[in-house]
Structure formats: C-alpha cells, structure tokens
Amino acid sequence: MTANDHNSHSPINPNTLPNFATMPNVATMDTTHVDKNQPPFILVDGSYYLFRTYHALPKTMQNSQGLVTNAIRGTLNALLKLMRRYHPTHMAVCFDTKSPTFRHAMSEEYKANRPKMDIELAEQIPYIHRLVTALGIPLLRIEGAEADDIIGTLAYRAVAEGHHVVISTGDKDMMQLINDCVILEDSFTGKMTDSAGVVEKFGINPEQMIDFLTLMGDSSDGIKGVPGIGKKTAKDLLNEYGNIDNMLKNVANIKGRAGKNLLEYADDIPMNAQLATIVTDLEVGQDWQDLKINTDPCAHINELRELYSELEFRNELASLDHPNHPANGNGHGTQSVAHSQADAESQAQIAKSLQSSTIGDITDSKIHDRAWHTILDESAFDNLVQLLASAPHFVIDTETTSVYWRQAELVGLSFAVQAHEAYYIPLTHALEGDELIAKQLDRDTVLARLKPILENPNIGKIGQHLKYDAHILSLYDINLLGNIHDKPNNWAMDTMLASYVINAAITRHGMDDLARHYLQTQTISFEDVAGKGAKQVSFDQVAIDIASDYACEDADITYQLFDLFSKKLADDTNNAKLLHELEIPTAEILCQMEANGILIRRPFLNELSKRFDEEIIALEKRAYEVAGEEFNLGSPKQLGEMLFDKLGVVGGKKTKTGQYSTGEAVLSKIDHPLVDITLEYRGLSKLKSTYTDALDNVADAKTDRVHTSYHQALTSTGRLSSTDPNLQNIPIRTATGRLIRQAFIAPEGRVILAADYSQIELRLMAHFSGDKNLTHAFNEGLDIHAATAAEVLGKEVAEVTATERRNAKAINFGLLYGMSAFGLAKQLQMSRSEAQDYIDMYFERYPGVKDYMINTRASAYEHGYIETILGRKLYTPDINHSNRMVKQGAERAAINAPLQGSAADLIKLAMIAVDKVLPKEQAKMLLQVHDELVFEVDADKVDEISQLITNAMQDVLTATAVEKGWNVNFAVPLLVETDSGQNWDEAH
DNA sequence: GCATCATCTTA
DNA sequence: GTAAGATGATGCG
C-alpha cells in the first residue's frame, strides 16, 4: 500500500467500545529508547486547522469563482511551516469524518450542540484533502474514529518504535498525549507546549490531563464534568489527591460544593472520563513505517500546479518553480504566504518557543561565541572593578525583586563593557537548595566598591530604561543620576529613549522588543526564568546560574543596542540632540519627581469615600424602585436591557457587540428618571473607585505621599503617560470632581503652585500655519475662542454670545484633532451640512490653517513621518493603509501629531529650564500634566519662585532651545499662567 | 486568571 | 475628530 492511500482503512464500528483498561498511556510510557537526533514524526490535527483558520481568517479570501479559500490557505500554511521547520521524513495529516464514533454511541449529548458546518467551509474540505495528498503527505480519515484517536494511536506507535513526535494542534485535549518525547505545536499561533508547558498552563501534569478534563467537562463537546468544579478547583484537587480515584476514596475530606457534587455525580465520572480519553490502540490497519512523506519532487507537481491554479494561489504557483519549494522535499523554500503580518507574528512566536525546547533538531538559539561570567569570588570582582573603573563607558543593569522601584530590593547587578561579553554579580539570591547562594559576595561591600565608579561623571553609563536603575541605586545611596545628563557629550545612553527618539512607532521600546526588532534576537523572557501569572516568583528565587544567563543577556543586548543606536545617531545629529539634550535630562528630572511624590489628605479622601458610598447606595435604591426590580446599575448591559426592553424607552442604539449603548452621549438625550439616577450613580462610583479609594490605597503608609510612575517611551507623539496611579487625569471639570483635587496638598509651610501653558496647541497651530488672523489674535492677546467666533461670524468680539463662543471653541479643538464635518456635527449636535458650512466659513477666514492641514497630510504621505518643532520625527505607518477608515484615522493623527508632539517637546524643555533655576531647598517639582507643571514651594517664597518658573517656561524657545542649538522663530508669544493655594484645586 | 468591552477621567 | 489609563462587568478557556 502507498502512503497516500487514505481510503483503504476499514471503518471502525462505533458500537464497539474501546477497551480502556488495556489501552496504552502515552503520557506515562517509557521513552528511554527514543533517539532525539532523528527528525520527529509529525502528526497534524487537520480538523483543528480547518476550523481554526476558517474562523480566524477573513472570508474575503476567495478565488474569482467565489470559492472561499481561507481554510485552505490557513491549513496549507500550517503544513508548509511544519515541513520547513522539521524536514520530517514521517508525517500524517488526520481528519475527522462525518460518521458517528463510539463517543456518540456512549452519550447522546456528545457534540450534540455543534451547529451544522458552514457551506463555505464544507466546500473547502475536498480541496484540502487533495492538497495534502499532492504535497506528498499521508492523509488519514477513518470512519468511526476521530482525528484525535488516530493521532493518539500513531503517537503511541511512533514513540514505541523510537521516534519522537510533534503533534500539530491547538486542542488542549491533546495535552494528555504529552511526554518527554511528544510535544504539541500550534502552527497557527506558533505556541508550543511540552510537559512543562502543561504544568505552566494548568498547574497539572500531562498524565493528569484526562482526569482534569473529566472534572471540568467541556461544554462545546457536550461533556458535562462535575458541576462547581472548574479549572482552578480541578487543579487544586488533582494536586492534593493525584487522581480522581483517590479523590473519591477521600471524598469525605473534600469540603464544600466540590465534595458534595463529586459524590453526587460520581456515577457520571467513568463515562465522562472515557469521553475525554483519546484512544491509543485503534485498529488503523496500517503500520507507521508507511507514513513516509513522498519526497519525489516530480510525483505530484502537476496536481499541485493544477490545484494552485484553480485556487488562484499565485505565489504558491510561482514557488513551484523554485528549486527549494518544500513540496520538493527540501525544507528551505521561500515563504509564500498571503498574510505576511499574521505570519511574521507567528514566526516570531515560533522563534520564541524554540528557545525552551530541546527536542530533535529544534535549535537552541543561544549563541555560543560569547563570554558571560558570574562573579562569585573576590578576585573576579576585583578584576571587574578594574575593568569598569578604566572603561570610558559601560552598560549597567540592576536585577531586583519588583518592577515597582519603591517595592524593589536589589538582587544582583550586571555589566558589559563590550558586545558579547557580560558579567553578573549575584548578591541576594535565596533559592533554597541552590548551592551557589552561599558563594555570593556581600551586597554592601560590593556596592561600596562600585559607588565611586557609578557616581563618576567621567565614566559614561549605558542602560535600558536607566530611570529605573537610578531609582534602585538611590535606594542604596548611590547617585547614578549625574552620569545621565551632566555629561551629555560622553557616551551615556538610555537605549529605550534612543529607540523612542529614532522611531517611536516602529516597535515598542522594551528590551525584548528592541532585541527582536533591531538585533533579530529573541531574548530569554522574564517569564522563562521566573514563571508567569500567580506562579511567578521574584528574581531572588531564581537559581543563580539561570539568573546569570538572563542578566548577562540583558547587559549584552543593551551593549549591542548601544552600538547600533550610536551609529544611527551619528547619522542624524538632531536625533542625537533630542536624546542627549531633551529626553535623557527629562528622564533625570522625572526620576526626582517620582521620588518626591505629592502629599494627599488621607482623612479627607476617606471622608469623601464614605459620602460617595452613601449616595451611591441611595441612588441604587431609587433605581430599583423606578425599575421595579433589583439589577446591577453598574452593568451597561443590564442597564440597557432594563431601559430599552423592560421599561420600553425608545431611542436605544446598539454597539458593535450587539448590546445597547448606554454611554453618556446617548443617555443624556433621554428624558427618564432612571437616566438621571444612572448618570449621577456613574459619576460618583467613578470618583470613588478610581480616585478616592485608589489614591488612599497607593499612598505611602508613612509619608502619605503618592508616587506616580511616568512612562517616557510610550506615546506616539512624545507625550508622557502616568500610571500607578495615573495623576494626569485627576478630575477638574465638575464641582464634585474638584473635591478630589482638593485632596492634593502641600505640607505645612508650603503651598501648591501650578503653572500651565495657555492654549499651547493652538499657538503652535498659529506658528506652523503662519495664518495671519490666528497669529494676530494671539499677538493681540485676545480671547481666542471669542475671536474665532467673531471672525467667522463677521462681528465684533464684544458681541459674541456664549453659544457662539462655545461653538467656536469646539471648532478650534476640532482643528487640532484633524476634524471632519461628521465629528464636529456630533460634538455640536447639529446636522452634517451645518457643520460643513461652519468649517467652510472657518477656512475662508483662516486660509493658512487650511493650508496647514493640506501640507501636513502631504508631508505624511511624502516622507512617512511629520516633524515637531524640535525636529522630532513622528512616523505615520498607517498613512497608506488599505483600510479606508484606518487610513483616514492616520491622516487625522498626522494633523494632530505636530501640535501635540511639539507641545510635548516644549514642556520637556520647560522642565529642564525650570529644574535648572529652581531653588531645591525651597521648592520641588512634583507633577507634569502635558501642558502644566505642579510644584510645592515654601509659602513665603511663592511670588518669587512663581516668577522664576513663569520666566523659564515662557523663554524656552528664546533661551533654552537656543542654548541647545535649536533656533525657532516662534510666531506668537508663549503665555504661562500660574496660581497657588493650599491644594491643587486652589492652585488651578 | 486573563483579555476585552464599555465607560469615564484628563490634556 | 488627537493622545492617554483605570475600572467593573463580561466572556473565554
């Protein structure tokens, strides 16, 4: 029989039950004889790829005959990937058939609720079968057996015969087949799962998988499981009792619902277990040796050609003439994939999964031409100290117990003075049983020796996200900060900020992202060494040899990035200037601001929480009365159903997910008592949960100060963002909201001082557009929104009504946001054509602004980026996107980016300028909120310092920028407004 | 337990 | 119409 003779199997009688007692168990079988150096036996779960790719890939993939081809493509890509990766000699693709199996005979509910297969999918199946055969891969379908069972059987036989096995599937049920020599690989997502992967994912061993599935059940397959036992309980029970038999023996000891139900449903367990068990001794009537790939390049080439032509897979067709097409039995073919983006992502994931795998020819991607050292004795440390002290610059990286610097303790330090060589000094690792922990050098001794080097401004410090390391070192009384910006001309560099300045959009700026993007290297992830989720341990619980690899890699990669970015910056002096004169100095100031924190009034916040809570409860009660029943007022879904279905309110609109929209914009148009109650309820619960409760939780227990964390390499425009907590969105618009602001105070003898740029983005618009009317209004010091209304309506500023000013304000903001008539109409609640008329009138009066819009858009198309006032390039990758909506979104972002981005540049300059003149004993900079800086200052020095700050901020373009070599002739004045008071509300 | 949605807060 | 982050509810596995 030939390998592809897939119709030759005798059907399996669905009424003959497998003998579960004698069935071999793949997870526990002996694997000592398996030769891991041979290519693996590949078993593909064809049915999985069929369904997965059909639902995941767009149905718009069709040939000219209207045949949907997404599942064909998806499955083909999975197969080609496997062949390229493993160069297998033995492989089989298994499919389910429509006929019933023993599971259907056992349980009426088994897969009973599966909807009928879509016709668009059914049509693709014959093509997929033909394709598999034409690729020379054995195809297996057996009446009365599921693909799982064929795979289970073949996996057992293959391992028994000395092969290791890769099962290509995304079905978690198959995890019961995993052992030392059998792994799962989902070729669609790139995810690989070995034994450790099962433990990581579910907290149990592969051999416990059947019991796990039996307890949990599977609603999509119609397997019930034990009610009340989900993933978590099943895991806990299995960890305690090992298996279900043992659980039942000790069922009296199992408390609560789990124990009760286990007893009550004990009779169902055997059947559910059998439904969940993959058969491993099917009568397949075929020996595994027959499942060889047909490697004759000419065998099926004509069939393939015909298929690809009919399907209109042009790239695949062309690649048939390429000598390395995988169908020719050679695993190095060119990629021929329709979804380059999705594919690139899954490739990256595959690359990642390769790291941890040790099976077969899956390569360990660690490079070996490198020297990574663990420093565990005095003389090695002496040598390192010598090396660092005499280096012009070096990479430093701290390893700690937490990503939050305020909770972190130092665990070790890594260094690099050149690429491919790195040192790790473990200091406080404490993993029980790790023999190396006793050899660690003393932390304080090491730090004392390093302090003069780390504080030496003449030795450049290089790091990835140095602000973090600076925070950590400052906890140990080491001041790294001076080295970051006091010597802007040395080699000091923050690779995260360098990447951000060079191109903020091309990748995120974490070290893993940078290594992947710029060095084509997949780093050891933190999760690889410390686990993830609830099971993650802190770094001091990682074994020193593993930790050392991780830490050395970090330092090594950082050095390599430093080399690469240094070259890029040498070619672009403005980028170099942005890094050294703007971002790195800003980082140092942010470090101080974060360390300062801002004082809050805890008792006041607690009092507010209590008050809000009482009002919330009263509102809930009223809502239940109006509704006639209790429901969750905080659930948009339940509220929508109550309002529009049960209470019959008209005007309900649905969101894209099919539920009613209950956003503020919709509700405020409805006249109904429940709406008023809801809006008030939402306002108060927002304030309570997001602000009064949250701030109290994060404030330092001893000092009552709140320390936010600023992210400097995140936004697409150059703005900062603030997290944990976000102090850039503290309420201000409503009176109740402002109560929160009143909780931010200055200590005794000091006041809060706030300084903000007035209308900075509109001033930038005036500058960039050069528009005469706009420039004139700012130069005359007019109320800009009133001036706009007067100009557009052709009347005097004094005659402008409140509504006219409000509309003008909306259009001014709209301009900054790349406005459309549609958007303006929605904002002003007018018709689209009215909005369009208004916009037309505006552009007639402000032609320069119209030109700015056109020119900025054009620049984005021409260069792929726009520039801010300091020449920061902000890339606009979606400007040529094939989706019209996405493309238009990118156009609006491009129009906004120079304005928002330039404002971000200016406030960073302002922070640098202010920091330089601020008397540190009398004032501290605390917060930055995009166009505002918040300080606490000695009460008796407020006027003086306020003037100092105002001057520094207003003069950034005429003084600070010029000193640093940026010469900008700004078209309008920069105006700063300051105020001060006991709290942030009074200061605003 | 983790991701996504809907909502609301800021500049 | 731009740029963010946090929360509770909900859905998935």
From TrEMBL:
Q: Report the InterPro entries cross-referenced here.
A: 3'-5'_exonuclease_dom, 5-3_exonucl_a-hlix_arch_N, 5-3_exonuclease, 5-3_exonuclease_C_sf, DNA-dir_DNA_pol_A_CS, DNA-dir_DNA_pol_A_palm_dom, DNA/RNA_pol_sf, DNA_polI_H3TH
Listed under catalytic activity are:
DNA(n) + a 2'-deoxyribonucleoside 5'-triphosphate = DNA(n+1) + diphosphate
Instruction: Tell me the ranges covered by the DNA-directed DNA polymerase family A palm domain, including all copies.
Output: 737-941
What Pfam families does its record include? 5_3_exonuc, 5_3_exonuc_N, DNA_pol_A, DNA_pol_A_exo1
Keyword DNA damage set for record: yes
Q: What class of enzyme is it?
A: transferase
Instruction: Outline the extent of the 5'-3' exonuclease domain.
Output: 36-294
> For this UniProt entry, which residues form the secretion signal?
none
Name the keywords, alphabetized: DNA damage, DNA repair, DNA replication, DNA-binding, DNA-directed DNA polymerase, Exonuclease, Hydrolase, Nuclease, Nucleotidyltransferase, Transferase
Output the superkingdom of the source species. Answer: Bacteria
Would you tell me the protein name for this molecule?
DNA polymerase I
**Native source species:** Psychrobacter cryohalolentis (strain ATCC BAA-1226 / DSM 17306 / VKM B-2378 / K5)
